[in-house]
Amino acid sequence: MLSAKYISLIAGVFQQATLVIVIRYSKTRHADQHQIPYLTSVAVMSAEIFKLCLSYVLEIITSRSSTASYDALESSSTEDINDASTIGSGSPRNYAIPRESQSSLGAIIRKSWSTLKRMLELNRESLKLIIPAILYLLQNNLLFVALSHLSVPTFQITSQGKLLTTAIISRALLKKRISAMQYVAIALLGLGVAVVHLSELRISTTVVQSEADSSLGKYTAQNQSLGLLAVLISCVTSGFAGVYFEFVLKTSAQSVHCRNFQLAFWSLLFAIIHVGLKDMSQVKSHGLYHGFDGIVVLVVVTQAMTGFVASMMFKYADALLKGFAISMAVIVASVLSIFLFDTEISGMFFVGASMVGIAVKMYSHYGAETNKLKAENPSTQNLEGGKICTP
Fold first, then answer.
1. How does pLDDT run across 309-321, given as a tens digit for each residue?
2. pLDDT > 70: what percent of the chain?
3. How far apart are CA 216 and CA 12, in angstroms?
4. DSSP-derived secondary structure letter, 386
5. More confident call, 384 vs 76
6. CA 150, CA 148: separation in Å to the nearest integer?
7. Helix or strand or coil: residue 69?
8. Is the distance from CB of 375 to CB of 368 less than 8 angstroms?
9. Rounded to whole angstroms, how far apart are CA atoms 22 and 16?
10. What distance in Å separates the CA atoms of residue 228 and residue 208, rounded to the nearest whole number?
């Protein structure tokens, strides 16, 4: 039977590869038809609703598990007291206080309601998540823009630039140590991304010219510059939001599911505002969920699962396995795009992709070595941001 480590690895590869494939397919499948496409803002809003509900359910399950463990321990202690009393007095006594079963419907409803009120409390800890909520919302919308204008392999490779932005922001805000070899990996990553985009530019130029000379007219013009800009902005927002959310988690006593719920709550609030400001006219004309079908529902679910799968990998997998999962997801999505979208991949692309893959593995490998040295020398941990940077 597979361990939790490898289950999280498989889930990460499957989720990341599936997400970019289904988004790309959903945004390009009606290019030659006169069908009204679904609204990206509504899809992002629906994903936040899904995340909100799932976080709530997970929080209830984990809190009930903790309560059950505490009750079992308390019951065991009570039995020990009763046994001691029986031995001392020679007559049986029962000091256990009757209580309503935790499995009763009334208890479950009260527990669920109290959990919801606790998670919706607008305290200082909840307000801290407004900034990452806005950034993640922007990032999720940019994901659709990028995959509308870039091929899947190019998007997958370029999006690894978030490693660069995350490293820089972590260094600036959390004072995390970056080794010399990790700086080399970051430089190699940037160079590899540049090579990939040069190869994409050559291919797209060739395709445009060939289609312009033909009478088929099936080519759908795509703005590669817009797609690249969307990915670059997404990398910056992802890096800052990820580092900020990590800071909030490490300085908060609340559970991860509770913080995810609060994050989804604020994201949903701003997503509703975004739909109202940007697409209200189309909603009035065609309905809120026009264009939705099984593919779009799959888009919503896979996008909503991003954070949960990342949390699973963060908990069970080490840095090397996470780097391996990223590389595998890029390979799987790129191979599938060749068969599904007739994506052309040049030798120059393979060179750039190889550079990015090596850079990701280098960064993960030397990051793991740095963490190992910190674990072996606890005195050096205080040099990296004190309480904020606890490993």
1. 877 777 776 656 6
2. 74
3. 39
4. G
5. 76
6. 6
7. helix
8. no
9. 10
10. 18
Q: What is the pLDDT of residues 41-88, one digit of tens each?
A: 999 999 999 999 999 998 988 877 655 544 444 455 445 545 545 444
Instruction: Choose among 155, 148, 149, 151: nearest CA to 43.
Output: 148
What separation in angstroms does the CA of 314 have from each of 47, 89, 307, 318, 319? Answer: 21, 54, 10, 7, 8
What region, left, alpha or beta, does residue 389 occupy, with left being phi > 0 and alpha being psi -120 to 50 degrees?
alpha
Instruction: Report the alpha-carbon distance of residue 174 to residue 187 in Å, rounded.
Output: 21
Q: Which tokens is 71 given? A: 């009750």
Would you tell me the crossing angle of helices 40-89 and 105-119 to the nearest 10 degrees? Answer: 120
Residue 22 token pair: 């289904």
Q: Among 123-127, 245-249, 322-326, 333-337, which is the least confidently predicted range? A: 322-326
Do residues 58 and 335 touch, judged by C-beta distance below 8 A?
A: no
Give me the DSSP letters along 236-296.
Answer: HHHHHHHHHHHHHHHT--S-HHHHHHHHHHHHHHHHHHHHHHHSHHHHHHH-TTTT--HHH
